[in-house]
Design goal:
79 residues, alpha+beta, six-stranded antiparallel beta sheet, 46% strand, Fe-transptr_FeoA-like, FeoA_core_dom, Ferrous iron transport protein A
Length: 79
């Protein structure tokens, strides 16, 4: 089942299917290693849900909720 990274619960993981967004936002995500095929685990969410911290390619990355909404994920498992 595909869903947006912004919809993930803490501890949930999955694989990136696609990255949407306009120009600079999409380019910034790609520059940070958020590319199709990468495995992602949602580690933390701020109290109001923005920002979120993920683990991708062996490092921690913090994304705004709007950026996370641009990332379509193949749902993995919850740990």
């Amino acid at each position: 089942m595909a869903k947006r990274l912004s919809e993930f619960a803490v501890g949930e993981s999955g694989t990136i299917l696609s990255v949407s967004g306009e120009g600079a936002v999409r380019r910034r995500l790609f520059d940070m290693g958020v590319t199709p095929g990468a495995d992602v685990k949602l580690r933390k969410k701020a109290p109001l849900g923005d920002p979120v911290e993920i683990t991708i390619r062996g490092y921690e990355l913090t994304l705004r909720k709007a950026e996370a909404a641009c990332v379509e994920m193949q749902n993995g498992k919850e740990e």
